Each structure stands twice: as C-alpha cells, then as structure tokens.
Amino acid sequence: MRIIVVVGARPNFIKIGPLVPALEAAGIHAPIAHTGQHYDQQLSDVFFADLELPEPTWFLGVGSGTHAVQTGRAMMALEELLIAERPDALGILGQAGGSELRGVAQGSDAGDVFGPGAPVALVV
Fold first, then answer.
1. Cα(73)–Cα(28) distance, rounded to whole angstroms?
2. C-alpha 64: how far from its chain's center?
3. Angle in degrees, CA 53, 54, 55, rounded to 5
C-alpha cells in the first residue's frame, strides 16, 4: 500500500515526525508531498533534519500568497500529482486547506477525474 502524505506548514512537519516512520514500519510506503507553504530553512528544512524525516519526494511549489491563492495552487498541483501517481490513499495533515485538498482526491462534481479507484483521503 502507498499513502502519499501531504504536508506544507511548520506545525504539521512535527506531526509527521512519528507518523511516517510508523507507516513505513507497518509496511506502508509513505512518500511525502511538500506543498511549499513553508519552504525556507527555518520553517521547513530544520524540521526534516531534526526529526530525521526523509526528503519530500515531491515539492509542489505553492509558495506565498493569501489563503485562497495557496489553496488554489495546492489543489491544482495535488490533482496533477494524484493523476500521475495514483496512490492508494492520501494523508493530509493540518487544517489549512485540508478539506479542499481532500476534495481533490475524491473527484469533483464535474466528474471523477480518478475513476472508480479514487484514493481515500485521510485528514489527520
């Protein structure tokens, strides 16, 4: 099983500290997709180093902006990632845009872009 863990802000980097190793220990491949909301040394890299987390597999490059801008960019980038990678599940940490990103994984009213095997989105 493969769960893509989506994270992008400082408090949630801390949350994945124990989560990713626990998933891997249980035999669940858990690559990290970093949205890029917090992306500099002090707000991102230091936590990956201190918590001994693997480097993110994907960096979505959301960058700075209003909540709406960041959420929109994250939704578009995440949709592309999910179409390309087709994970079994998606783990979304945090509250900032979490429900909106979950909606990307579950398709849209305009049609299910992922077909019948859409990933399950878990907002943690």
1. 28
2. 17
3. 115
Element containing residue 121 per DSSP (H, E): strand 120-123
Regarding pTM above 0.70, the answer is yes
pLDDT tens-place string over residues 1-27? 999 998 877 778 888 888 899 999 999
Those residues with Cβ within 8 angstroms of residue 97's Cβ, 6 or more apart along the chain or in another chain: 67, 70, 71, 74, 75
Q: How far is residue 10's CA from residue 26's CA, in Å, rounded to a whole number? A: 25
Give the chain's end-to-end CA distance (angstroms, integer): 18
Residue 40: left if φ>0, alpha if ψ -120 to 50, beta else—which one?
beta
Q: In this predicted model, what pLDDT tens digit does every residue of 41-88 receive, in sequence order?
A: 566 677 778 888 888 999 888 878 888 888 888 888 988 998 899 998
